[in-house]
Every structure is written in structure tokens, then in C-alpha cells.
Design goal:
Largest sheet: 8 strands, antiparallel
Strand content: 35-45%
Distance between the termini: 12 Å
Number of helices: 3
CATH architecture: 2-Layer Sandwich
Structural class: mainly beta
CATH superfamily: START domain
Length: 147
């Protein structure tokens, strides 16, 4: 389930309500291994059917979303800082639609690890792809086209 953090009309920022990954008590290496294990994504990300390719710096991968079964969306790993952050970016030509998904690991206040996932969508076709009208504040049970 996704929670809308901001909806400006021309951009939409969402995050999963409860990411199903190890808790803050897990070692960062454990969480990082899960985040970079493409074949294992569907085990912890309920919106992902499968991920094809290697999750590595500059690599192109394909993400098949449960929101659009049978179609895999190409994205590029645009940021890869081991143990800290991974960003996937993809979209349509001419900036008609762009999706960016960022996974972040950071030290927690209790000595554990804080894990977050943030998705941002932009472009003039956003209302058509996400669904018109764009959601404003209610959680939405769907996955993004960029997974």
C-alpha cells in the first residue's frame, strides 16, 4: 500500500506504508543484500512481480509490477552507494512521465538502521498513468509503473 506524501499536480511523491524488509535490528549488510537481490524482490515487495537484471551501478534492469501484469518497465540504476542508497529511474521520452524510486539506509536514533523507500513521479502524463484525478492524501493500494 502506498501513502501519498505530496501531490502538486505536476509531481507525486509516495512511499510504502509498511515496507516488508528486515527491521531496524537487522545489520545493514543484511538489508543491502536483500535490496540488491533482483530474483528475490517479490518475496518482500508486494508490488513487484519480478526484477530482471543485476542491480548494480549504471545497470539497466526491468521491473514487472503487479499493477500492470505481463509488462516489465525498464529502469536504470542511477545511484548506487553500497550500504546507503540505491536509486532507480525510468520513464518516457521527452519527460512525458518519469518515475524515481530511492531506497535509503541510515543510522537510526536507537543504534539500529532506518530503512526508507521513496517514489516520485513527474511529467504531463502523470494523471493518465497514475489515474485521473491524482490522489491527494489517502493511501492507495497500487504499485508504480517503475516499481
Amino acid at each position: 500500500m502506498l501513502q501519498v506524501l505530496a501531490d502538486r499536480g505536476d509531481a507525486l511523491v509516495v512511499q510504502p506504508v509498511e515496507p516488508a524488509v528486515p527491521s531496524a535490528r537487522s545489520a545493514p549488510e543484511t538489508i543491502w543484500a536483500i535490496l540488491t537481490d533482483a530474483p528475490g524482490y517479490q518475496a518482500w515487495d508486494s508490488g513487484v512481480e519480478r526484477v530482471e537484471g543485476a542491480i548494480a551501478p549504471g545497470r539497466k534492469i526491468k521491473v514487472a509490477s503487479r499493477a500492470n501484469p505481463g509488462r516489465a518497465f525498464p529502469v536504470k540504476v542511477t545511484e548506487f552507494s553500497p550500504g546507503q542508497r540505491i536509486t532507480w529511474s525510468g520513464g518516457m521520452p521527452l519527460g512525458l512521465f518519469k518515475g524515481v524510486r530511492t531506497f535509503t539506509l541510515a543510522p537510526g536514533t536507537d543504534g539500529g538502521i532506518r530503512f526508507s523507500v521513496r517514489e516520485e513521479y513527474t511529467g504531463p502524463l502523470l494523471p493518465l498513468i497514475w489515474g485521473a484525478p491524482c490522489p491527494t492524501s489517502a493511501p492507495r493500494s497500487a504499485s508504480s509503473p517503475t516499481a
